[in-house]
Each structure stands twice: as structure tokens, then as C-alpha cells.
């Protein structure tokens, strides 16, 4: 086997491994889970709290030269746009989640801007699949129904 063939085969095996790994990690939550548990699983897997929480522990690579500064700036910027720690406290306590947070979450899920590509490159499996998007949007609708049942127009 020539060096070129070995190189090509090695690249092919590497790409196949990355694709298989990504497909194994990026799975939607089980249908058997309660919608709230599905929501939590997707948010945890996607790493939303890593940037949208002022007390979150950033990944180890946030201390690397060059890359670290950008990660820290992005996390600070993300938290200034929406602090999900309040949303998660409301969620964990069984309280109604405020409609502003629901609208912001819905917007970034619908337009595909979260998580950003620069995050998903360093954290394989964090991208939100179409099925996960549907689960999250259904969950948001159910949360809105709870708000509307308390505050009818």
C-alpha cells in the first residue's frame, strides 16, 4: 500500500470516527422522560449554563493562551444577554418562567444561533438537533400555557 493510500485511509477512518462519535453523543432525550426532564437534559448537554450563568465554571481550555480570552469574553457577553441562572431557579422551584426569558430562548433556538459554531467545535455533541429543537419549542409553549392560565387576557 502506498503512502498516499495509507494517508487517505487514515483520514477516512478519522473522519468516520468523528462522525460516529458525534452521532452517538448528540442524541435527543428519551421519549419516556417527562418534558421538563427532556428540557433539562438538552440544556445540560448543549452547555447553555456554561456561558449564560455568572457563576458557571468555564471549561479548562478557557485558560489557554489565545483561545481563553475569546471564550471568557463570549461567556461574559452571553451572560449579559440572558442570565439563565434565574430561569433555572424558577424552573427548579416549579415557578412560572418569565415570558421575556422564554421569548429570548425561543428566538435563539428558532434562528439556530445557539449554541454558536465556535462553541460546538470545541464541545462536540452540544449542537441542538432538529428533534431537540422541537422538544425545546414544545416545552416553551407549555411554559407559556402555564403563564396564560394564571394571567388570562
Describe this structure in words.
The protein has 153 residues and is mostly helical. The chain contains eight helices and no strands. The protein starts with a helix and ends with a helix.
Any key phrases for this structure?
single chain; about 150 residues; mainly alpha; about 65% helix; globular
What is the helix/strand order?
A: HHHHHHHH
Number of strands: 0
Low-pLDDT runs: none
How many helices? The count is 8
User: What radius of gyration results from the CA coordinates?
Assistant: 19 Å
Multimer state:
single chain
Gap between N and C termini: 74 Å
What is the average per-residue confidence, as pLDDT, rounded to a whole number? 83
Percent of residues in helical segments?
A: 55-70%
Please tell me what the overall shape is.
globular
* Helix-strand makeup class: mainly alpha
Main sheet summary = none
Strand content: under 5%
Secondary structure layout:
Layout: H1 3-25, H2 35-46, H3 48-51, H4 67-81, H5 84-92, H6 99-110, H7 117-122, H8 130-150
Helix pairs in contact: 2-8, 6-8
Concise overview:
The protein has helices at residues 3-25, 35-46, 48-51, 67-81, 84-92, 99-110, 117-122, 130-150.
